[in-house]
Amino acid sequence: MKEDLQKDSIFKVGKVTSVEGRTIKIEVDKAKNSSHLLYNGETIRNISVNSYIKITKGFVKIIGKVDGEFIIEDKIYLDKNYTSERKKIKRVLIVRLMGFFSSKGFERGIKELPLINNECFLLDKQEFQEVHKFVKKGDLPLVVGTLTHESGQTVEIGISELFASHIGIFGNTGSGKSYTLAKIYNKLFTIFEKEPKFNKNAKFLLFDFNGEYNSDNSIIPNKKVYNLSTRSHTHKDRLVFNETDLLDKELFSILANATEKTQKPFISRTIDFYKKTLSTDKGIEYFKNVFRKRVIEVYKMADKEKAFLLLDYFKSIIPPIYDEYGIEIDPASDVDFHNRSQEFTLNGVFLRTNPEVIKKTLLYESVSNYEFPINFISKIIHFLYFQLVYDVLSNRAQNEHIAPVINKLNSFHKDIEKVIEIKSEEEADFWDNNFFCVVNLNETNTYLKKTIPLLVSFKLYAEHKKSNSKKKEKSLNIIIDEAHNILSYASDRESETWKDYRLETFEEIIKEGRKFGVFLTIASQRPSDISSTIISQLHNFFLHRLINNNDIIAVEKTISYLDKVSFESLPILPTGTCVIAGQCIQVPVMVDISEMDKKFEPDNKTIKLVSNWI
Predict the structure, then answer these.
(1) With contact defined as beta carbons under 8 Å apart, do 419 and 238 qualify?
(2) Handedness of CA 98, 101, 102, 104 (dihedral sign)
(3) What φ, ψ does residue 139 adopt, rounded to 5°?
(4) Which residues contact 96 (CB under 8 A, 6 or more apart)?
């Protein structure tokens, strides 16, 4: 009892003088204005800005955090000549309420507000640890670092609370955000990599735009790395897809950058035609017969401009024809167009009047030599041309509306072939028996930097959603470093339609993925550039140094429960220090991220100029 009274006398710092919603003002006892206090032979930090304070209201213990303080003159002492200058000053703390202690321990939120004159105390060691106990019963701890202002206090986060959520890691270049990303996943994999159920049920996909995580040991040695490149003539690695994947209408629309109302229905018709043609063993013969029929229809046309346009499409499909000297000749060079009668002729014979003569034309005869291209993209382009010919002939589509989607594929199909490999369903194991996969996009062009993450994410999300809808045993974590590359709404390099489609796809994953066990981790230098819908759906945040005011405002709008001191600290945080906030912890904390083995670090160190110059 005596010890409790002694403890209370030392730990008591003042009383409540004002209650204004969540903001409380506390008058500090004049004897408690020193920086440290002595208790049981130990020095303890006295109350100050960024400290926690306990307010007792009967048997209820309410916890707040000091956001600021100010002083006022104590008028009671003004007329007393014997008083010291120190006694004329009243110290007042501005406190924001954070939570309370219950039978379960510390809980975030407010159930009761304090009353005027309620006594206020420092937290003892046990209470301080209880406030920073973030691992719930049944969960496992993940050590991320130590408190910046209390270096002896380790910060542990519940693994389920953190990784079964959408995570945002933000900070300017050089602030340590990539290190933090690597640290938390390295720690997770180190704990679970030898667990059979983890290897079976957990999948992690990392999109690496700058080649920071593709080294042998980065994050973890046991991983599958796709080093994609559009620069090299020899293929480095290629993503594994099966033909069924790319014949998904939504997925192929992503690849072709198709618009919603005109081009996507056209692609849908093409894919249906493709499946119908190749559904039998005699698919090539069926295609040739249809091809011959289309040649006859074009040569019977009266519209010269449209007919020559369709002939150009045939020339894109038909194999090259050479004369006796090995010189390539035009497949339609043997026919002429009679302008007066508006009809094609072959050696003076009108073809619409004499359709049987069409079978003697060079183009018609060349159809017999046609073979499907080996490459899937080239093959589907042929089907797209063929479908466009039919749609134009039947007035189902306007050439100028549909042709851009084919031109887009034509311009990029060689690049696409460099990064995508088509295999059978039995061979197409994207993960290659690994639980962690890195897609390195450092050497790809801008088009594929935006397309590949969308394509792969959509494919894996759709597969996971289909296979995990009932049992819900499996999880998929999609990790995007430098996420502003693909989640920005301010990009001027693409059409508004494509930009909307790209963002809507990831917005669907972040809004609906949780219920299917799909979670997103994004790291970025510019949170203000990222779609506000995506930022608003994040559950947990690791905030490193942010200098730009727009970035700080973007974060502030999303994390309403982050205290004023933490926000004002963001521009001056040292490298490796971050503010952690979100559902995985009861109160936002400033943490020094602990070091990991250097071989697991991302390859993003700043060059040391002087050591390279001397």
Answers:
(1) yes
(2) positive
(3) -100, 170
(4) 22, 23, 24, 64, 65, 67, 563, 564
pLDDT at 50 over 90: no
**Side-chain half-sphere exposure of 312, counting CA atoms within 13 A:** 8
CA torsion 30→32→35→40, rounded to 10°?
Answer: 150
d(CA 336, CA 25): 94
Closest CA to 295 of 396, 391, 389: 389
Calpha distance 198→220 (Å, rounded): 15
Instruction: Say whether 358 sits in a helix, a strand or coil.
Output: helix
Q: Count Cβ atoms below 10 Å from residue 110 Cβ, excluding itself.
A: 14
Cβ neighbors of 560 (< 8 A, separation 6 or more) are none
Q: N- to C-terminal Cα distance for the chain?
A: 69
User: CA 85, 87, 91: angle at the middle one, nearest 5?
Assistant: 110
Please give the single-letter amino acid code of residue 75.
K
Q: Model's pTM, two decimal places?
A: 0.83
Letter for the amino acid at 483? A
Q: What is the DSSP letter of 605?
A: P
Q: CA-CA distance, 13 to 428, in Å (whole number)?
A: 67
Instruction: State the DSSP code for 31.
Output: G
Amino acid letter at 283?
A: G
In this model, does residue 501 exceed pLDDT 80? Answer: no
Lookup: tokens for 19? 């209650």
> What is the length of the chain?
614
CA-CA distance, 313 to 307, in Å (whole number)?
Answer: 10
Per-residue pLDDT of 300-323, as tens digits, reads 999 899 899 889 888 888 888 888
